[in-house]
Amino acid sequence: MRIPLSWLSEYVTSPTPLSAESLHDALVSVGLEEEDVHRFEVTGPVVVGEVLEFVDEPQSNGKTIRWCQVRVAPGDAEGSIRGVVCGAHNFFVGDKVVVSLPGAVLPGGFEISARKTYGHLSDGMIASAKELGLGEDHAGILRLVEMGLDPDVGTDAKELLGLDDVAVEVNVTPDRGYAMSIRGIAREYHHATGHDFVDPVTTVTPVVAQGFEVRVDDQAPIRGVPGCEVFIARSVMGIDATAPTPPFIQSRLLLAGIRSISLPVDITNYVMLEYGQPLHGYDLDRLTGGITVRRAVAGEKLTTLDDQVRTLDAEDLLITDESGPIGMAGVMGGAQTELGDSSTNVLIEAAWFDPVSIARTARRHKLPSEASKRFQRGVDPLVAEAAAQRAVDLLVAYAGGTPGELGARLIDDAVSTMPVITFEPDSVESLVGITLPHPQIEAILTDIGCEVDTTGTRAVGSWQVTPPSWRPDLEDYPTLVEEVARIAGFDSIPSVLPPAPSGAGLTPVQQAKRRITQGLAHAGLTEVLSYPFVDSGDNARCGGVSEDRQVRVANALDPQKAVLRTSLLPGLIDIAQRNVSRGLVDLALFEAGSVFLPPETLGTADIAPGAMRPDQDTIDQMNQSLPHQPWWVSGVFIGHQRPRGVDQRSESASIADALDAARTVVALAGGQLEVEQGSHPAFHPGRVATLLVAGQPIGVAGELLPTWCVERDLPRRVAAFEIDGSQLIERVGNSPHTVDSLSAMPAATQDISVVVDRSVPAATVQAAIAEGAGELLEHIVLSDEYVGEGIPEGTRSLTFALRFRADDRTLTQAEATEAKSHGVARAAELCGARLRGE
C-alpha cells in the first residue's frame, strides 16, 4: 500500500509536517513493514508560464518548430520573459503552461539548460504531461486550462500539480485488509503517535436512493456464506466524462501506483484508495433492466474490461442484467457497460462480497485487480454507503453531474453483526508478559474501534468485547491480546528466557543421532544437505518404491524433480556430480535426514474448502495418509580416500570405505554390525553387502552401478552406504553406551584357515567360529581369501586372525588352541568348513 503524505495529512493532525521517514517509523512500530518511498522525479525551477506569442518556423528537415515568448514571472523584470523553442502545436497565445527553467531536472535524469537549437537560444522547455511524469500522453503540451486551472504566472508548478508530494509504501499482511486504505493507515498512524484522527466516513452524509432494482440470487454459496450481503447503488446524471481529472487526484493516484484513465474511473479508484471500498461505475444508459448478483452457469462467457473473453466457472459470482453477465463481482467489470467519453449517466456500485469467493475467482482467472486484493482481505461492510456518497459528491463537483434519484440499498443485518468475544484483561500478562492497568487495556481496545462492556468486577471479571466492522481478523481473545500488545508496543514485551525444567535434555534417540552425525564428521566425512525433491527414476532405483507409488508434489518448481525422496542417495549423487564438475574429485560425503515412504493410501477422497475446518474423521484420514518419515544416514565416497605420499600409494574409494563408515554408524549407535552378500538395483551385483544388526537388515553398502555413475558424469567406481537410522536405533535400544575396560592380562593370537563352499558367506563362517571358541575369544577378523590351485573347485579358503584373552590369568598356548579347535568344529558343523590342508 502506497500512502501519499498530502492525502494522509487530511485525516491526521501532526505538530510537525509529515515526512517519509517519520511515517515509516510510526507505522513500523505498529507492525506495518517498511517497503519503499516514491517521489516524482522533478526537481529545480518548474513554474507556470503564459504564452505571449510564437512564430511557426519550418525547418529543412520537414519539421515546423515554434519560437515562443513565454512570461515565467510577474512584472517586467529581467528574465521574466524567456524565449523557448517548442516542437508541439497544440497550444495558443494566452495559454498557461508548465515551463521547466534551466537547472530543473525531469524524470529520467533529463537536465534542463539554456541551449542553442534551430538557430535560437532556448532558455527553458515547455513540458508535456509525460515529460513531467504525470502520464503517458506526450502528444502535446500540458495546457493548464484543460485541467480546469488558471494559476498566476510564476506559480510553483510542482506544488500546483502535486509533483512535490511523496508516497510511503508499506507491506500489508493479509489479515489487516483495513490498512489497504488511507482511512486505515491514518488510524494506524494515530495508534502509533496519539495524534488526532478524523475518520473520512464521518465527513459525508449518505443519501438513500431507491427505485433501481437489485436482486441477490446466490443459489450455490461457498461454505454456506452468501456471496453478496451488501449492495449499494447510486446514480449520477449528466456528467461530462471528458472533464479533466483534478491535479491532486491525478498525482495522488500516480503516487499510489494507479494510472489516470478518465475522470469517472479516476474518482472510483480515488475513493477505493481513500475508504478501502472498491467501487465500480456502469454506464447507466447501457444497462438492460435491473441488476442481479448470481453464480455463473458453467461455460458462460464474459468480455472483461481488458478485452479478454473469459469462460466462467460455476463458482464465479457475477453481476448481471437482463442481457447476461456484465461483470465478475469484486474482480473486474465487463466491457459491455464500460464508462466511456460519451457516457453521461453513471450508476455507482459499492458492495460487500465474500472474501473466499472473490479470492477463488481472481486466482482462477489470474486477475489480481486492486478491487480483488481488498475484497479477499475483507472490506468493512458498513463503509459502502459512505463510499458511494463520496463518489457521487466528487462526480458532482468535478464532472458537473447531478445526484440521481435512482438507487438501491441492500444490507443483510448479519454482515454487520460482529461476534462478541469474552475477554479476560489478565490474559494480556499471561500470554505476552506485559503488565498493563486494566483502564489502559480498555482504552486501547476502545481506540481500535471495539465496544467494551466491563460490567462486573474489573479486577477479576471477564469483559464482553465487540470488534469493529472493519476488523474481521479479531475472532477470539488471543487476537485481542495481540492488538493490545501491538498498540502498547512490541518493544515493551520483556525478553525472558524460560528456565529449563529439571532433568530435561536430549532424549536417548536425539543423543544417538547426534553421536552418529558428529562421529562421521570426526571420521573425515563432510556433512551435506540436499533437497528432498528428486527424479522419480533415481528414486525408484535407490529407494525401491515404484514410480506410481511415490509421493508426488502437485506444484513442483522443477518438473524433473517432482517426487519426495525415498532414499538419500539421489540427493548425494547430485551434490557429488556438482562438486566433481567443479574439479573436486576426492569426496567423502554423508547426509542424515528424513525420507518419505508412502503409506497404503495416499491422500483423502474429500477435503473441506480452505476456509472450513475438516471434521475429526477427515483429519484422522489425512494423518493416516501422510508418508512415513524415518531418519536415514547415507554416504558416498569418490576418488582417492588416501592420497599418495612418501612410501605410500594412493588408494581409491571402494566397498571397504563404505563398510568402514557403516561400522562407525552402528558402533556409535551402540550396536554391532553384521555383513552378508546382498543385492540392490542401484549397486554393482558383485560388490554389495546387506547390513544387519541383531540378524535384521538395516541398510546396504557397496559400490554403485558403473553404468549409472557414468550417466551422471562420475567415476566408474563410487562407493556408498545407506542405513535406516530410525530402525538401527530402535533395534539397539536405549541401553547406555559403554566401553570395555582394558585388561592387564596378555593376549594369545592364532590364525586359522578353513575351506568352505563358495556359496557360504564369510560372515556366517566367522560367526560359527566365534560361537564355538567361546568366551576366551576376544577378537576375530577375516584377514585373507584364496581361490585357486590347491583347493577343490567351487570352494574358497578363508583365513581368520583370532585373539584370545582371559580376564583373570595368562592363557597358555594349549588353552588358546583348544578354544580355536572348538571354533573349527562349530564351523564344520554349521557351514561344512574344514581346516585347509586336511
Automatic annotation (TrEMBL):
All copies of domain TRNA-binding, residue ranges: 40-158
Keyword RNA-binding in annotation: yes
Pfam family, one: B3_4
Subunit structure: Tetramer of two alpha and two beta subunits.
Residue intervals of the B5 domain: 416-495
One Gene Ontology term, aspect cellular component: phenylalanine-tRNA ligase complex
UniProt cross-references to SUPFAM superfamilies, sorted A to Z: Anticodon-binding domain of PheRS, Class II aaRS and biotin synthetases, Nucleic acid-binding proteins, PheT/TilS domain, Putative DNA-binding domain
Cofactors named for this entry: Mg(2+)
Gene Ontology terms, MF aspect: ATP binding; magnesium ion binding; phenylalanine-tRNA ligase activity; tRNA binding
Gene encoding the protein: pheT
Origin superkingdom: Bacteria
Protein name (Swiss-Prot/TrEMBL): Phenylalanine--tRNA ligase beta subunit
Native species: Pontimonas salivibrio
Catalytic activity: tRNA(Phe) + L-phenylalanine + ATP = L-phenylalanyl-tRNA(Phe) + AMP + diphosphate + H(+)
Cofactor binding remark: Binds 2 magnesium ions per tetramer.
Places the protein is found: Cytoplasm
PROSITE patterns, sorted: B5, FDX_ACB, TRBD
Binding sites annotated in the UniProt record for Mg(2+): D473, E482, E483
EC numbers on record: 6.1.1.20
Domain FDX-ACB: 743-836
UniProt cross-references to Gene3D superfamilies, sorted A to Z: 3.30.56.10, Bira Bifunctional Protein, Domain 2, Ferrodoxin-fold anticodon-binding domain, Nucleic acid-binding proteins, Phenylalanyl-trna Synthetase, Chain B, domain 3
Main location: cytoplasm
Cited PANTHER family: PHENYLALANINE--TRNA LIGASE BETA SUBUNIT, PHENYLALANYL-TRNA SYNTHETASE BETA CHAIN AND LEUCINE-RICH REPEAT-CONTAINING PROTEIN 47
UniProt keyword list: Aminoacyl-tRNA synthetase, ATP-binding, Cytoplasm, Ligase, Magnesium, Metal-binding, Nucleotide-binding, Protein biosynthesis, RNA-binding, tRNA-binding
Entry's family note: Belongs to the phenylalanyl-tRNA synthetase beta subunit family. Type 1 subfamily.
BP-aspect Gene Ontology terms: phenylalanyl-tRNA aminoacylation
